Amino acid sequence: MTSQLAPGDTAPAFTLSDADGGQVSLADFAGQRVIVYFYPAAMTPGCTTQAIDFTAATDSLTGAGVSVLGISPDEPSKLARFAEQEGISFPLLSDPNLETLKGWGAYGSKMLYGKDVQGVIRSTFVVDVDDEGVGSVVEARYNVRAKGHVERLLRDLGV
């Protein structure tokens, strides 16, 4: 069982490829608050809903000083198609070796159609990144539902 993160935990550092092949690190957001969310696969219904909802909330989040990063096991080329197709306005990062997903407790055993399977656990984290680029988990939500999730998160954050 992958251990899950809780508020107050240090957020595991990462550097991953984005949809354009560039490198994005948690430390790039030093001095900022970041929503890091993990989703199973680009271009699937739930993941599309979630990405569109985060895109719709980008102006409100940016105004509140909050950035968004989406992470999945998808290759950068698929992320690029997804971002273009859906007009996604924030970085989508590729974690094909599952290292970051596992480090954040977002990959492991889950129920899917009544079966216990290994896979991506749809999860969202609010992280405060200090001036040295080290993240601290403010909120950790596992097994979130795509529909209505972003709306609830914005309400809870007061955005």
Secondary-structure blueprint of this entry?
Layout: E1 10-11, E2 15-18, E3 23-25, E4 33-38, H1 45-56, H2 58-63, E5 66-72, H3 76-86, E6 92-94, H4 99-103, E7 107-112, E8 115-120, E9 123-129, E10 135-142, H5 149-157
Parallel strand pairs: 4-5, 5-6
Antiparallel strand pairs: 1-10, 2-3, 2-6, 4-9, 7-8, 9-10
Tally the helices.
5
Shape label:
globular
CA-CA gap between termini: 34 Å
Query: Could you tell me the strand content as a percent range?
Result: 25-35%
Can you write the helix and strand succession as a string?
EEEEHHEHEHEEEEH
Low-confidence stretches: none
Summarize the structure.
The chain is α+β, with helices and mostly antiparallel strands. Helix content is about 25%, strand content about 35%.
Account of the protein in words:
With 159 residues, the protein is α+β, with helices and mostly antiparallel strands. The chain has five helices and ten strands. It has helices at residues 45-56, 58-63, 76-86, 99-103, 149-157; strands spanning 10-11, 15-18, 23-25, 33-38, 66-72, 92-94, 107-112, 115-120, 123-129, 135-142. It has an eight-stranded mixed beta sheet with strand order 1-10-9-4-5-6-2-3. The longest helix is centred in the N-terminal third of the chain and has 12 residues, at 45-56. It is globular. The N and C termini lie far apart (34 Å). The mean pLDDT is 92.
